[in-house]
Fold ABC-2 type transport system ATP-binding protein.
Amino acid sequence: MNSALELAGLAKHFGPKTAVHDVTLTVPAGSFYGLVGPNGAGKTTSLSMAVGLLRPDAGRARIFGADVWADPVKARAQVGVLPDGLALPERLTGRELLVFQARLRGFDKATSASRAHELLDVLDLLDAERTLVNDYSTGMRKKIGLATALLHGPRLLVLDEPFEAVDPVSALTIRGILQTFVAGGGSVVLSSHVMALVEQVCDHVAVIDNGRVVAAGSLADVRAGATLEDRFVELVGAGAATRKAPSWLAS
Ligand SMILES: Nc1ncnc2c1ncn2[C@@H]1O[C@H](COP(=O)(O)OP(=O)(O)OP(=O)(O)O)[C@@H](O)[C@H]1O
């Protein structure tokens, strides 16, 4: 099987805290892969190690066979990344940012300008093309971040919560773009807390809890006949149903 992303035994400690114990999973090429897990489960840490933004204490990550640390240029050329809390050049307008990024990627002036325009158009950011990134809303920042991830035409997209803070119409647009990308042979890995969305768009899913993969595979296999939300709660939500609100609340 051709894999877009292979994570083997990834581990990361922050001081005494083990954020990721052992994350091993394979994202088949051409798949739409969802990563879910409770707050603090280790999703962002795992995705950051997967794309070379954070050095693991153990384990390895390969993008289309290229080791992210041993062969970073080859690995990174094939991936577009939307990291958590993306830092953007705040004093550039949306259009300037995209043209600048495209030029950094080595595209000529004309190609950079046309790619920037197409992405602003498709992500409905043309009205804000002259607005400084500093003045973008949270959802607009997600969209311009996604545009920078798409700019160089990668084969794999790794997106940390791409739908967070995005309005429903923009979410539909982003979904459409990602589905077209996968239909054209691209691969997507995204993290999300929205089970219904993951269920609708992803064909594979991994559940991470406490820095470990507790279930992974095709959506049907992981769901095992239940809804993804029910399976999620069954796998990682022990105790949630018995926790009560404070007695003084609304009394
Ligand atoms: N730089 C850091 N220093 C110390 N601890 C960290 C650091 N980054 C993450 N952690 C800890 O590692 C654990 C995993 O965090 P991570 O952000 O990967 O979780 P997550 O699954 O993405 O969570 P969420 O769904 O809330 O975004 C958490 O306990 C977090 O507090």
Notes: Residues 14, 17, 19, 37, 39-45 surround adenosine-5'-triphosphate (CB under 6 Å). The longest helix spans residues 168-183. The domain at 1-78+158-169+189-245 is CATH 3.40.50.300 (Rossmann fold). The mean pLDDT is 93.
